[in-house]
Design brief:
Blueprint (H helix, E strand, L loop, with lengths): L19 E4 L7 H7 L5 E4 L2 H6 L1 H11 L5 E3 L8 H13 L4 E6 L1 H13 L11 E2 L9 E5 L11 E6 L4 E6 L7 E4 L9 H20 L5 H23 L4 H21 L3 H13 L3 H16 L4 H10 L9 H18 L16 H9 L14 H13 L2
Parallel strand pairs: 1-9, 2-3, 2-4, 4-6, 5-8, 6-9
Antiparallel strand pairs: 7-8
Helix pairs in contact: 4-5, 6-7, 6-8, 6-10, 7-8, 7-11, 9-10, 9-13, 10-12, 10-14, 11-12, 13-14
The chain binds nicotinamide-adenine-dinucleotide.
């Protein structure tokens, strides 16, 4: 493992996180107090129809009522949300003069809440601000409450929306989308269906691995990322096996939040670049698209940093005694395949309707994410990307 005191191993780095993170079972009960602390009393809750059906919002409404606050509701977020949803919901926020945005749900709802917060105070459409630090004015105050354990969106300075014009994912990076308060309550994740537990759990693992092996890794991201890998290794199986296992749920919520903080500082890589087009072109969920690409990218990337992939293997509990570094990386790939098999996640692209003829479009989609190749531990050219998709089509 890299020593954190090895000054030459790292460049100058940044670390950012929300002002406040409240973590723990039943943490959500503190919501009214947090709204009061922010000096607000007219919140708009942003979420999706699945979360509305869970009944969580009734509890939220009661808590706010007890504090003499009414809440507005926008409950129409969809998975992998298009940018127009931000614009539509921001219009509602402006029309009704809401003074605080609460995002509750999976990463899709939290991302829309982030967009709504900034678009309530900035002109134009959200896609005008795609890119890095393009948002001129701070948004409305924001509280983010994840109900999945994966994206880490509650602690990151980015949100992702789909541009329906070219079917690509567009990202908005801005310090203004870090929430004032992140409330991470593992109890809220208990109701996730098996597929959501599996897909989002792998999303957290991918964030942790990609930031750990990133060329932009630094002491902050390394410490958080490797602990997140360890937590996923320890808790994803039991959380999947028993929905009500609150220790495992807590471990996964912590892993997701730490991994979000890690990648905000250390960056992501090729898994994300090659997974995004699977989401936009074949409608795989975010976490599922990451899961499918993960083993193929570890296989491709590992010669770029055998040392760090070795750390990942150890953190995931892979037995490494007596193995060479290369053999350890092979054992890691085997462990990832086993994990995906147990979580019932097929890893052959043909199982998702992808055909050989689709590879050029997928490759073109991945090439649009070239910013993610910079931190990736191995360079990627167009032919490499095509080769990886081709391998993933049939399975290793
Ligand atoms: P999601 O938000 O799309 O939700 C998936 C489904 O799970 C929905 O139907 C939702 O209703 C349901 N669900 C959520 N919580 C539930 C619960 N507790 N019980 C039952 N059902 C529940 O899924 P996600 O994987 O959390 O988020 C994916 C989105 O997050 C993508 O749009 C992706 O681009 C984005 N993302 C953002 C960041 C970031 O840093 N901003 C990072 C990673 C991913």
């Amino acid at each position: 493992m890299m020593k954190y005191g090895e000054a030459t191993a790292y460049k100058i780095c940044n670390f950012l996180s929300p002002n406040k993170i409240i973590f723990g079972v039943n943490a959500v009960n503190q919501i009214a107090k947090e709204i009061r602390n922010l000096g607000r009393k007219n919140p708009l809750v942003v979420t999706d129809p699945g979360v509305v059906e869970l009944g969580l919002l009734k509890d939220l409404e009661e808590m706010l009522k007890a504090d003499k606050m009414d809440m507005g509701l926008y409950g129409k977020v969809v998975p992998e949300p298009p940018s127009r949803i931000v614009d539509e919901c921001a219009q509602l926020a402006r029309d009704k003069s809401y003074d605080l945005i609460i995002g509750i749900g999976g990463g899709s709802s939290l991302d829309i809440a982030k967009g709504v917060s900034i678009m309530a105070t900035n002109d134009g459409n959200v896609l005008d601000y795609a890119g890095t630090d393009m948002v001129p004015r701070a948004g409305l105050p924001m509280i983010l409450i994840p109900t999945t354990a994966g994206t880490g969106s509650e602690v990151t300075r980015v949100f992702v929306v789909t541009d329906e014009k070219d079917h690509s994912k567009k990202t908005v990076f801005s310090n203004y989308v870090l929430p004032d308060v992140a409330i991470v309550d593992p109890a809220l994740t208990q109701s996730m269906p098996l597929t959501v537990t599996a897909d989002t759990g792998i999303d957290a693992l991918v964030h942790a691995i990609e930031s750990y092996v990133s060329a932009n890794a630094n002491p902050f991201s390394d410490i958080l990322a490797i602990e997140a890998v360890r937590l996923v290794g320890e808790n994803l199986y039991p959380a999947y096996a028993k929905a009500s296992n609150m220790n495992a749920r807590t471990g996964m919520s912590l892993a997701a939040t730490l991994a979000g903080m890690a990648f905000t500082s250390g960056g992501l890589g090729a898994v994300h670049a090659l997974a995004y087009p699977l989401g936009t072109l074949f409608h795989l969920s975010h976490g599922r698209s990451m899961a499918v690409m993960l083993p193929y990218i570890i296989d491709y990337n590992r010669i770029g940093n055998l040392e760090k992939y070795g750390d990942v293997a150890e953190a995931m509990g892979v037995v490494t005694d007596g193995l060479s570094k290369y053999e350890v990386s092979e054992a890691l790939i085997d462990a990832v395949y086993r994990l995906l098999e147990i979580l019932n996640i097929p890893v052959e692209l043909k199982d998702y309707g992808v055909e050989e003829k689709d590879i050029p479009d997928l490759t073109a989609g991945a090439m649009k994410q070239a910013r993610l190749f910079v931190p990736n531990p191995r360079d990627l050219r167009e032919a490499d990307i095509e080769g990886i998709y081709r391998k993933a089509l049939q399975g290793a």
